[in-house]
Amino acid sequence: MRGVDERVLAHDDRSFRGPLSAAILPGSGSDGCFVRRAFEDVLRSVGVMLVAPEPDRSAAVVRRYRTALDQALSVVTATPGARLLAGGISLGAQVAARWAAERLDADPDLPVAGLLLALPAWSGTPEDAPAAAAARATAATVRAQGLDAAVAAARAGSPPWLADELERAWGGYGPALADVLDAAASTPGPTPCSLAGLHVPVGVAALRDDPVHPLAVARGWAQLLPRAALVTSRLDVFGTDPGVLGRAAVLGWLRARG
Hints:
With 258 residues, the protein is an alpha/beta fold. Helices cover 54% and strands 14% of the residues. Strands 2-1-3-4-5-6 form a 6-stranded parallel beta sheet, with helices on both faces. The radius of gyration is 17 Å and the shape is globular.
């Protein structure tokens, strides 16, 4: 996705009505450090403050994500003129989309300025989605053989940059990683109906050659959402520059706004 930096900066729409912040949730087994690497620079370039909640390293990971979004919304609601962008990566994107659909259905006037959704993995029930299957398999390896064995298996079947990132992030969970991954693999994504009911602008980011987060899922979300733009990149670009994911999501949101 060459040129995304320049296009986002050229757009650089600072006419937002009041202060804008973005609460971005990590994927399963990931953390706020990776969210910052992917989103902080591009959000700063368009005048948006990033909030990157750390996950609950237990089976309560999804509940913690929803609580973090509720807390971010409470802060925004208490600040005159402020608005919130909600979003996430992989599991975080799915939780954010469901959360926004529920909150905005109950109160369409909430100060939610849009969504930044990167690498959605499934809609509705996970069933045999590649990301859910991978999470279950890794959880089983952690329980049967330990975290080191799970990291070794990831290193054998992944590009070096991805294996390094998984080793770094998974090390923060220890044996609890199994519970976290199983919780993620059983968490429903947004339904087609809930996506179709979201009328805020949404940027959807995907990698065209990512087998775990299929492009077809991201494309399906973008087609269902009334105001959305899908921006894509490639896995090798993401591997050298995680910021490409944030730039894609923000560029999609700016296009959806326009």
